[in-house]
Hints:
This protein is of the alpha/beta class and 342 residues long. It has helices at residues 2-19, 37-47, 73-81, 94-102, 113-119, 121-127, 130-134, 169-183, 188-214, 233-238, 258-271, 285-292, 312-316, 321-335; strands at 31-34, 55-58, 84-87, 110-112, 223-226, 242-245, 276-279, 301-304. A four-stranded parallel β-sheet has the order 2-1-3-4, with helices on both faces. A two-stranded parallel sheet has the order 5-6.
Amino acid sequence: xxxxxxxxxxxxxxxxxxxxxxxxxxxxxxxxxxxxxxxxxxxxxxxxxxxxxxxxxxxxxxxxxxxxxxxxxxxxxxxxxxxxxxxxxxxxxxxxxxxxxxxxxxxxxxxxxxxxxxxxxxxxxxxxxxxxxxxxxxxxxxxxxxxxxxxxxxxxxxxxxxxxxxxxxxxxxxxxxxxxxxxxxxxxxxxxxxxxxxxxxxxxxxxxxxxxxxxxxxxxxxxxxxxxxxxxxxxxxxxxxxxxxxxxxxxxxxxxxxxxxxxxxxxxxxxxxxxxxxxxxxxxxxxxxxxxxxxxxxxxxxxxxxxxxxxxxxxxxxxxxxxxxxxxxxxxxxxxxxxxxx
Length: 342
């Protein structure tokens, strides 16, 4: 899959260099390109009423999973022409690194959340090794400086689903705010005020998560079972949850083995959770099979949203970063319910 995407990227870059140029951009306009929904929504909150008329674009507007996303010529043009590119910078978005490099963008016009995390002393220490906790399916070759054989940083020790941490998000938002202020210093005070207010809302929601998980008491009671892929390692790290999942990280696997099903079913019997979790748009068949093989046949199937498949229609209907994380908290409360623990 990675080789196929590299070939596609090379072809699109060649087309871009032949027919497009960042020099065609109107210099007086400002364009910010966010690769994913979370970054897009954070920028919306910072811009507020958008006094400078900054154009905000989202690279992945279809809601396609970035793990299998195929870039288009239009994507390459957007990356080349934007004044500020904001993206997670994980393994699934390696092609964005390549596209940005091919378009000769300045370092100041690129903001990678992975780089922010890796260079923040507190966050890098807190989350070091999160990728290795649950995902061993990728092999990478690094030298002593943490770069791959092509000389690019990939920060493989960190899980790529960075936006799902309410504790790390304020740091990302502060960095995004500073980048926006550099583009439009006239409205710095306004953007910084919006950012402070928004960060306080995120911290308040983080506090609600803390209350829910702290109420579980013993650590062995704070357990979640996910009959699906598992992009929620930051949730378990932030709130000291134990967990079991059908597949590691965002594995490409779709069929669980019989042994995995039995292991998950046994975990239900041992921990007696309030429900079985799956991703928002996943099929329920695996979760139902796991439940049927346990002693708690009436367990509900609950959904967590990793924000990797948010569509333009979802945004039009009012979907926001905070609303998704609030819905995830509701699902987490139900999954941690103690009614079955008798």
